[in-house]
What does this fold into?
Amino acid sequence: MRRRYDVRWRLTGVATRRAGWVADSDGLSPIALLNGHWPMVHPTSPVPQSVSEWLEKSRADVFFETSSLDPHSGQPAIDHIKAALNHGAHVVSANKGPVVHAYDILSSLARERDKKFLCESTVMDGVPIFAMFPSGLPATELRGFSGVLNSTTNVVFTEVEKGMSFEDAIKRAQALGIAETDPSYDLDGWDSAVKVVALTIILMGIPVKLDQVQRTGIREISAEKIRSVRAAGMRYKLVCRAARRGAGVDCTVRPELLLAGDPLANLEGTSSAIHFDLDVFGLSMVEHNPGIDATAYGLLADFIRAVRPA
It folds into this structure.
């Protein structure tokens, strides 16, 4: 990466629930950490007790925020990002909560500090949705979008169609690393609703709230119903939609019965897709069976956008 992008880096801080706040401005070994070898705590070197102390001790230039999503408050990620920007670091986030609850505040703070707040991995992993619009689609108006944006529900529908029970299909999604121990946010449509709000705020410029999304999850659809419609050539998908209505927007997340000819109906496993309705043309993007490395790529891409020379 140094040769290709003229970027040199070192890892100076890691924070996890298990390890706490670990920082060393001289650099930590990523390989050692991945193998469970954490640095010893020196008695003369106090352990950071807050994100601000940790940022200061690590002397961070770029902060990656990947804490778990709280769709109702966006915390503690919002406070983490504010602390990083006030410290003077660029912020790269995979957390949708801060976008939904504090995008304008955080973006303004980033501009004031002459730093970047980037969040490509929040929707469709590493697919460059947010980066595409300002650079690749200038002078267009986004009138709306539709898509299948939650991998967990897509895996559940796919596996149930093959004969798996609803519970085993959820375990399959968890084994793939795309579903949390408690998959409620996915199954009840919260993850999809948060993504709809994030897309609407950033790409359409409309400050929609999470409670304005008409949301229905997939729990009420029986395995028998999922398999019977599949045998008839149709498929259930949890579909996200947003459409401009005057100065506002209508947003929905709900299971829809799609005909086999619908592009969204053909998505398998962890694949996701989105269609943008622009004033000049329609544009569709499909992400085929991404894994956790796709999210990591989105973080890496934002890192390069943040730090590479202009």
Notes: The radius of gyration is 21 Å. The CA atoms of residues 23 and 57 lie 6 Å apart.
